[in-house]
Inverse folding.
């Protein structure tokens, strides 16, 4: 499978862009475990062109994580074009446009999935960005705004006509947010539309190797994108790759190994942010979501203490104290 001139192996796995999750440390971990492409956290076009330091920091890329995409979101043409040019200067392999984020502070202001209510504007932004940059431009969106407007089959063709190099589809509407089940049948309908020539990447509810295999085999997508299933569990890419190639499951990593990897991730975030407390706070979503501590009896108070820790010494002492 190829996106523009970028070649990927058979049945590639991509790490989804996620706010406060896909920082440089996490992207490198996922790459280490087999992710074939990774994405930055989504970046506000308006904040980028205003030179907001925290936003500019999200443009930090490492050669070890390539191919890597920078994802942008915004609601107006000119800021998105300017932001795309700034992003291109950071030398990503791909620039991705976010037309799928459902959260109120984004979609409610007409950006992200909000553009599913203004398709002409979405297409205008897409065409303008494609013309403004030399890097391949891709799009990530949803099935539609709600159950009454699942327009993705026709929308995919129109986005392709704008010149995008690939399309990622999250199998939910904006109204669903992250509830219910992802509708992969509609993703498959887009992929099997004979008028579609660009790669179609499926996203939504891929949390097991079996589900990833089903998405490739049953719906024919060119790649599978993994989002929430990777939070606190970057080794999911290794598990899925092994299953796709052998049909068997990897032996699970030991509890001690998983704890050490969590600590390594926290340390990398502290290093990236050059601040102990900020690095710890930034890591809390991974600490909260990791399956490492799942099923441990009477763990609630320990989890609370772990998520309230503000120094590495305190946090690592709590992690090391957990024994099974």
């Amino acid at each position: 499978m190829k996106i523009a001139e970028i070649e990927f192996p058979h049945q590639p796995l991509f790490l989804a862009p996620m706010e406060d999750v896909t920082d440089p440390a996490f992207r490198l971990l996922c790459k280490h475990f087999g992710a074939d492409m990774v994405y930055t956290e989504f970046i506000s076009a308006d904040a980028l062109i205003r030179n907001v330091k925290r936003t500019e920091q999200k443009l930090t890329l490492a050669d070890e994580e390539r191919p890597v995409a920078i994802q942008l979101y915004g609601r107006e043409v000119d800021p998105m074009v300017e932001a795309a040019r700034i992003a291109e200067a950071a030398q990503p392999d791909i620039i991705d446009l976010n037309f799928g984020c459902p959260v109120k502070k984004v979609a409610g202001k007409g950006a992200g999935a909000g553009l599913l209510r203004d398709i002409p504007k979405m297409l205008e932004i897409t065409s303008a960005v494609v013309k403004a940059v030399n890097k391949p431009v891709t799009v990530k969106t949803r099935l539609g705004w709600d159950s009454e407007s699942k327009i993705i089959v026709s929308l995919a063709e129109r986005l392709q006509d704008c010149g995008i190099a690939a399309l990622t589809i999250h199998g939910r509407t904006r109204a669903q947010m992250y509830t219910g089940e992802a509708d992969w049948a509609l993703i498959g309908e887009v992929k099997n539309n004979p008028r579609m020539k660009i790669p179609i990447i499926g996203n939504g509810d891929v949390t097991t190797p079996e589900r990833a295999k089903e998405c490739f085999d049953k719906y024919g997508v060119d790649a599978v994108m993994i989002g929430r299933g990777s939070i606190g569990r970057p080794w999911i890419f290794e598990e899925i790759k092994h299953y796709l190639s052998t049909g068997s499951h990897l032996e699970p990593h030991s509890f001690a190994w998983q704890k050490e990897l969590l600590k390594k991730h926290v340390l990398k975030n502290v290093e990236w942010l050059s601040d102990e407390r900020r690095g710890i706070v930034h890591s809390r979503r991974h600490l909260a979501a990791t399956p490492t501590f799942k099923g441990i009896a009477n763990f609630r108070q320990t989890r609370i203490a772990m998520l309230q820790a503000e120094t590495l010494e305190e946090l690592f002492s709590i992690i090391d104290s957990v024994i099974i």
Notes: The first strand starts at residue 2 and ends at 3. The chain has 14 helices and eleven strands. The two ends are 43 Å apart (CA to CA). The mean pLDDT is 95.
